[in-house]
Structure formats: structure tokens, C-alpha cells
Specification:
- The protein is α/β, with parallel strands linked by helices.
- The protein is built from twelve helices and 17 strands.
- It has three domains: 96 residues, Immunoglobulins (Immunoglobulin-like, Sandwich), CATH 2.60.40; 172 residues, Rossmann fold, CATH 3.40.50.410; 142 residues, no CATH class.
- Helix content is 33%, strand content 21%.
- Strand 13 and strand 14 form a beta hairpin.
- The C terminus is likely disordered.
């Protein structure tokens, strides 16, 4: 009888090894029940459309959950409340619907009180989903404490997916909580994002292949992934996860093998020898992904410390890197190009600013918060290689990209769930996609897209594409250095 298995491919070029890990669920495998825990902020700022959208989406979950699955719902304000505790979805759903209907707006925002209720949940969670729209105002407000508290309250290896609704939440806290639990963080800039991310999470739960993952980094190598600890989170059927490794010294020999551990109830160890890459464009794309995560993380820190000009300079350098890459027509790179453009535009100084701040003239506060949310969310998206990319559609290009291009990190099952949950929302929307102002894009049919500048475009002529990095070019320079891709150096 066929069993679950994992394919590991390690391919290298110059000093970089790209490890591709793809899980495959056995055709005869029976899906195991999952237990989803929803942790919902019901403070005063969640009133109106926000809380109604949350309640609507939770009700729609019944379409995607089997009778054998379990759900728990915790709400928090100044205190925490368990509305549902490990309720099985079989039989009469009246209790489920009554609990959802009982969700209502209360007082302040005490996340510690909500997290404390996780210890009262009877069955171990398969996944936790935290939704909040504000800053933590009550209880212990220290982000480091709350991250540790959340992880210690839950069984090891439990992913905590986070969603920040609107621009006024603590972006770096939700990003770090998601990434450290090997899950996602999403910035919800619009109502429609809530069903999309929950559909994405459920798609992963229903097609999970394995967990307890660990990639052993060979001696003489380091990871290019942001804050990588060896774990890649849960393994999802037919989803490929990349891990990039780089030789610490250019003269370091290739390792004889790459070792990867995982479990589906039985412990497995996969060992493969690195081979020369046959698809250098994929490896180049992944290098840009990892570099983008590192740079956006640095930009977020700079902006939080009011170093606006330094942050904007790094974004402009990243824009050039993405625009001139040989893989600029790949779906992921197009999304990142649009995201960086949006962030640069969002950092335009306020026309009413009286004088420069510490690091330049700041943008208007609401726009700065959106840029911070977009940057933190995109960092988590490309680091975790999952979740939903959501950002303020500041340009027509970005609006159409989000609506028309496939998500490079989701599986068919995840996309189907996202469509199912969001259908009631999208069917009520008659807004047409905005046309491009400067470019047209058409699919090339190979995972990339063709760009055709419109006549009169004000886009500056791009330099010639840059090739892959040479052995003498470091992939992880200090955060304020320009990263060169010049093969001839």
C-alpha cells in the first residue's frame, strides 16, 4: 500500500544550495480530524463591519469542515471567554451557530487574557488563528513575553496564524508570533481578506502530510532564510517549501548530503546529495525571495525608529534589484515589485510636514502605519512561504495583480477553499478591475508573465538584467549595502 512520502531535492549554483521539500499524500490516506481554535479580538474598535465579517466567515466555515472536525472559539477584550470548547462538527450545529451569534463587542484589548484561555481547551489544537485590529492595551503588553507565553501554553509545533485587521495593530508582534510558530501573518486591509486567509489555513489542515520537520544545516553553511531555526512547519500535500543555504566561505566544499527529518506518526529521515541546478531561474527567484524578506525586515525596523530616508533608500535599491532581475516576469517577483512600489509611494512625505524628523520628513501617520503593516506582512509571506499577500492597493498595477495572478505559495485545495469562503462577498461586488496606467501584463504560460509598456509610460528605462550571483559575491551583506548580482565580479 502506498504511503505518505516527501521528496527532497538539493540543487546548487556557485555558493548557494536550494533545498526543495515537497510532501505527497498517499492516495489511499484517510484524512485525520483537525481542531481549529479561533482567538478573536472583540474590543470596541472591532465594532460594525469588522465583527460582522468575522461572524459571517466563522459561520461559513461549516461548508469546509467535516463532521469529524473540531472547533473552539475564544474571544477576548478586558478578559477572555471560551465560547466553544473542542466542539465536534457532527450532528446538531445549533450550539455552534448560537456561539457565533453571541459574539459581541466588549471593552479593552487584553491579549494575555485571551491566551490564558488556551489552557482550558480540552483537545490539543491543530492550529490557532488569532485575529486582532489594535494595540495591546491591558494585561502584560510586552511582545517578547506574549510570544513566549503563547508558545508555552500550546503543545509544541502548534502553528499560530495571525491576522492584523486595519493598519493600527502591532505589526512586528504579529509577524514575529506567526513566524516563530512557523505559521503566517496577514495584514487585512479589506474585509475580503478574512475568509481568504481562513480558507488558506483550512486547506492546509485538510491536506496535511507531516509535521515535526527539521532540516540539518551542514557544517560550513548558513541559512539565508530569515531567523531560520531548521523547522519549516507543517508539510502540506503537493506544496513545495524552499530553504536556501550558503557557504560561509567560498572555498567551503559541497556537503556530501542534505538531511531532513519529518514525522507522520512515524519518524522519517531523508538524505540527498546536492546536484548542479538544471533550473537556475528558480534558484535565482528564491534568492530574491530570501533577500526581500531580509531587506523588508530591516526597512520595518528603520521606519519604526523614524529613519524614513534610510528605509526609503533600501526600498528603492530593492526595487531596482527586482526590476532588473532575469526572473522579473515570474509571478512572485511581480507581486514583490508591486508591493515595493506601493510601499515607496506610501512613504511620500506629508505636504503639511513642518520640518524634517530624525531621519527625514515622515509620511502622514495613517499611511506610515499601512506601509509598516504591508512590509511586515510581506516579510512573513515570503519567509513562511504561505498565507495571503494583502497590501494597500496604492497602484492600479497592484490591484490587478492581486485579483488575477495565482498565489505562488498556495495549493489547489487552499485556493478552492479561499474561493468557497469568499464567494458570498465577491458575488456582491461589481467593481471592475482597474486598468493599468503604465504596463500591460499577459501570461507566458510557463509561470512567468510578459510586460508591455504602454505608449507614453513614464517608467524609466530599466538597466540590462543582472545574472546570478557569483561565488565571490556574498548573498547576505550588511543590511545597508547594495547587493550585487554581477556574475563577472
Amino acid at each position: 500500500m502506498a504511503s505518505n512520502h516527501v521528496t527532497v531535492v538539493a540543487s546548487y549554483r556557485e555558493t548557494v544550495i536550494g533545498v526543495q521539500i515537497t510532501a505527497h499524500k498517499a492516495p489511499s490516506a484517510v484524512r485525520t480530524p483537525f481542531h481549529l481554535v479561533l482567538l478573536v479580538d472583540v474590543s470596541g474598535s472591532m465594532s460594525g463591519e469588522r465583527i460582522n465579517e468575522v461572524k459571517h466567515t466563522i459561520l461559513e466555515l461549516m461548508k469546509l469542515m467535516d463532521p469529524m472536525d473540531y472547533i473552539s472559539i475564544i474571544t477576548y477584550h478586558s478578559t477572555g471567554d471560551v465560547l466553544l470548547n473542542s466542539v465536534k462538527m457532527e450532528g446538531d450545529t445549533a450550539a455552534y451557530m448560537a456561539a457565533v451569534s453571541s459574539i459581541h463587542i466588549m471593552g479593552g484589548t487584553n491579549l494575555e487574557a485571551g491566551l490564558s484561555k488556551l489552557s482550558e481547551i480540552t483537545l490539543p489544537p491543530s492550529s490557532v488563528f488569532l485575529l486582532t485590529d489594535g494595540q495591546i492595551m491591558e494585561g502584560n503588553t510586552d511582545p517578547a513575553y506574549l510570544i513566549t507565553y503563547a508558545r508555552l501554553t500550546l503543545p509544541p509545533d502548534t502553528p499560530i496564524h495571525t491576522l492584523g485587521y486595519g493598519p493600527d495593530h502591532n505589526q512586528t508582534f504579529l509577524r514575529d508570533l506567526g513566524l516563530r510558530s512557523h505559521a503566517s501573518y496577514t495584514y487585512a486591509d479589506r474585509n475580503e481578506t478574512i475568509p481568504l486567509i481562513i480558507g488558506n489555513i483550512l486547506g492546509g489542515l485538510t491536506t496535511e502530510v507531516g509535521r515535526s520537520t527539521k532540516l540539518i544545516i551542514p557544517a560550513g553553511y548558513k541559512s539565508l532564510e530569515l531567523n531560520f531555526d531548521g523547522c519549516i512547519g507543517r508539510l502540506i500535500d503537493e506544496k513545495t517549501h524552499w530553504v536556501l543555504l550558503e557557504a560561509v566561505d567560498p572555498s567551503t566544499p559541497l556537503p556530501t548530503e542534505i538531511e531532513f527529518h519529518w514525522s507522520d506518526g512515524v519518524e522519517h529521515v531523508e538524505r540527498v546529495a546536492p546536484i548542479p541546478t538544471e533550473t537556475p531561474e528558480l534558484l535565482t527567484e528564491q534568492v530574491l525571495r530570501a533577500q526581500t524578506a531580509q531587506i523588508l525586515s530591516t526597512v520595518t525596523d528603520l521606519l519604526l525608529n523614524r529613519k524614513y530616508e534610510e528605509g526609503k533608500t533600501l526600498l528603492q535599491e530593492l526595487k531596482v534589484k527586482l526590476d532588473t532581475s532575469v526572473v522579473k516576469a515570474r509571478v512572485l517577483i511581480i507581486q514583490l515589485r508591486a508591493q515595493v512600489d506601493s510601499m515607496i509611494e506610501g512613504l511620500a512625505p506629508s505636504p503639511h510636514a513642518g520640518h524634517p524628523a530624525f531621519g527625514g520628513i515622515p509620511p502622514p501617520p495613517p499611511m506610515l502605519q499601512r506601509v509598516l503593516s504591508s512590509g511586515a506582512s510581506t516579510t512573513a509571506y515570503v519567509s513562511s512561504q504561505g498565507g495571503v499577500l494583502s497590501a494597500p492597493p496604492l497602484t492600479p498595477l497592484h490591484s490587478r495583480l492581486v485579483s488575477e495572478m495565482p498565489d505562488p505559495f498556495s495549493t489547489p485545495t487552499q485556493r478552492a477553499n479561499m474561493r468557497t469562503l469568499s464567494q458570498p462577498i465577491h458575488s456582491n461586488s461589481s467593481a471592475a478591475a482597474e486598468p493599468y496606467e503604465d504596463e500591460d501584463i499577459s501570461s507566458a504560460g510557463d509561470g512567468s508573465y510578459n510586460f508591455t509598456p504602454f505608449a507614453g509610460s513614464n517608467s524609466a528605462a530599466a538597466p540590462s538584467p543582472t545574472p546570478f550571483l557569483s561565488r565571490s559575491t556574498p548573498l547576505s551583506p550588511p543590511p545597508h549595502e547594495e547587493i550585487s548580482d554581477d556574475e563577472n565580479k
